Amino acid sequence: MTDRRLTAGEAFAAVLPGGRWSQDDAVVDAHRLDRSGWHPPGRPLGVAFAHTVDDVRAVLREAVARGVPVTVRGAGTGLAGGAAAPDGAVILDLGGMNRIRELSVADAVAVVEPGVITDDLDRAARAVGLTYSPDPASSAISTVGGNIATNAGGLRCAKYGVTRESVLGLDVVLADGELVSSGRRTVKGVAGYDLTGLFVGSEGTLGVVVGATLRLRPAPRRTVTLAAFFDSFGAAVDAVTEIMATGIVVAMAELLDGPTMRAVDAATGSDLATSGQAFLLVQTDGAGAGDEADAVEAVLRGRARAVRRSADTTDPAAAELLAARRAALPALERIGRVLIEDIAVPRSRLARAAARIAEIGADTGVQIFTIAHAADGNLHPIIVVDRTGGAGGPAGETDEIPAEAWKAADLIFQTALDLGGTVTGEHGIGALKRRWLGAELGTANHSLQQRLRRLFDPTGILSPGRGL
């Protein structure tokens, strides 16, 4: 039971081992925001550094008892404001829970804590001939727990699916501190409701993931990388459509528009933009990677201005091309404050979505840079504004984002819905997209999900103002 004679800060310090609670201004400032560019008003209460499941349970029990909101944080790489802590919140940092507890070759599973870095898990799996397939662009710095919270996608989604397809089971601490387990370590299993699938992508609103049993796959024997340059974004999309029509399931089909190419060139010294107005990066993998790459190359050479091919990811040329794709967001962050949108549309409507996004940029005068996971219809129209900003954002959200940027975002999300798509393909709703969620879900669906959230978190302490 909580001691009411203590202040909230003293109480959280009391329930955690020494050194795992801080209200130091510098520490709070280093943990209060994520990569979304979203700055909530007010100031968080402090940071709780969890190293064990018991730490998480203790923090949540105290938070429920005192009615203190909790914002769960992994590496802070989220792009929708989900880990940006509001006024008075406890920031629950899971970065210290970073152990790979088991890696089974026989069962092709890994059992990990939420703070494990995505690339670290993949490297450990590859050392024994396996791989962890989810590959968000931030894989070098993002955590498995954060990927699970947002059901992160990434570069290899076209072939291997999003994070949900690799999650077999979860250990979750509920809002009241109760520890529950869902799922299993078998590939098959249909006993009871799919609570694991429900927790994945719930953005920390239903519970805190403290352990995960993850599916691993055989590491590809070979990977072939092709890069193609086009006169227009639409021409590149048409090439992807033709590739997919052949029946080949590529491992990756990443697309950058001309403005993004020029930003990458400026940041890295590359020369992408000298070859065209759109850059398409395609990878095939597995035993048939070579034959598949031959067929892909035939399509590209019939449509592209230039095509480059590398036979293996260890080839410096292939690594350089992949690095150029991963450098896109950091390159844009050098230009100004980025607001990363994340829409998905049916693949057949990808070119229409891209064309409409370009029109929105021209009509509003807002700089929009477009990146796409082209093989699955997921676009990232990235709005870049001056860091000094301007007034005009919706009340209570921010006073730094210009009104024209919000207008462009409105039009982008409406475009996604008009084309039969979604307002978020992989980044989540977070804080920045809540006002568009109802339009996609509809009243009955939205209400049902809100009731479900209250069942798991009756007092509403988990990620308030986020997700639903």
3D structure, described in words:
34% of the residues lie in helices and 20% in strands. It is α+β, with helices and mostly antiparallel strands and 468 residues long. The strands form 4 sheets. Strands 12, 13, 14, 15, 16, 17, 18 and 19 form an 8-stranded antiparallel sheet that branches. Strands 5-6-10-8-9 form a 5-stranded antiparallel sheet. β8 and β9 form a beta hairpin. α1 packs antiparallel against α3 (53-66), α8 packs antiparallel against α13 and α13 (350-364) packs antiparallel against α14. It is globular. Mean pLDDT is 92; it is low at 390-399.
Shape: globular
Q: Average pLDDT across residues?
A: 92
Helix content: 25-40%
Specify the structural class.
alpha+beta
State the separation between the terminal residues, measured CA to CA: 30 Å
**Percent of residues in β-strands:** 15-25%
Count of beta strands: 19
Please compute the radius of gyration using only Cα atoms: 22 Å
Number of helices: 16
Low-confidence stretches: 390-399
User: Strand count, sense and closure of the main sheet?
Assistant: 8 strands, antiparallel
